[in-house]
């Protein structure tokens, strides 16, 4: 398989996505990493668990860096992202499955909210 063709296809796909679609892609990756962490924790595969949590934290930092804090929603999301990072740091240190599930659920709900907003904006 020609990987250059695949790479060009991926780049073109990313170039044609709306901001909302790109945001959903980032949230999908966040939920995926949290799911990986959850599975790794249940299998007691701690290196994969820690890397998955660390990657989720990096994704949240990226989301935080892209916020426009001049708007109230941006400031509220910044506080939520700070909370996520704090909880995930605790999850990583204590291997706390309950807190991991809670953060994953909240991230999934946030992703669903953004997905609904993206669909509504496309209908206009």
UniProtKB/TrEMBL annotation:
Pfam families per record = FliS (PF02561)
Q: Does the keyword Cytoplasm apply?
A: yes
Superkingdom classification of source? Bacteria
What InterPro entries has UniProt attached to this entry? FliS, FliS_sf
Q: Does the keyword Chaperone apply?
A: yes
* Compartment annotation: Cytoplasm, Cytosol
| GO terms classed as biological process | bacterial-type flagellum assembly; bacterial-type flagellum-dependent cell motility
Q: Please state which protein family the record places this protein in.
A: Belongs to the FliS family.
The protein, known as: Flagellar protein FliS
């Amino acid at each position: 398989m020609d990987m250059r063709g695949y790479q060009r296809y991926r780049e073109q796909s990313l170039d044609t996505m709306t901001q909302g679609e790109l945001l959903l892609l980032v949230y999908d990756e966040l939920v995926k990493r949290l799911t990986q962490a959850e599975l790794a924790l249940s299998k007691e595969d701690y290196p994969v668990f820690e890397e998955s949590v660390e990657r989720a934290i990096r994704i949240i930092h990226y989301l935080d860096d892209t916020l426009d804090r001049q708007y109230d929603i941006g400031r509220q999301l910044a506080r939520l992202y700070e909370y996520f990072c704090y909880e995930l740091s605790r999850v990583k240190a204590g291997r706390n499955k309950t807190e991991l599930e809670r953060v994953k659920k909240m991230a999934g709900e946030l992703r669903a909210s953004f997905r609904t907003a993206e669909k509504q904006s496309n209908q206009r």
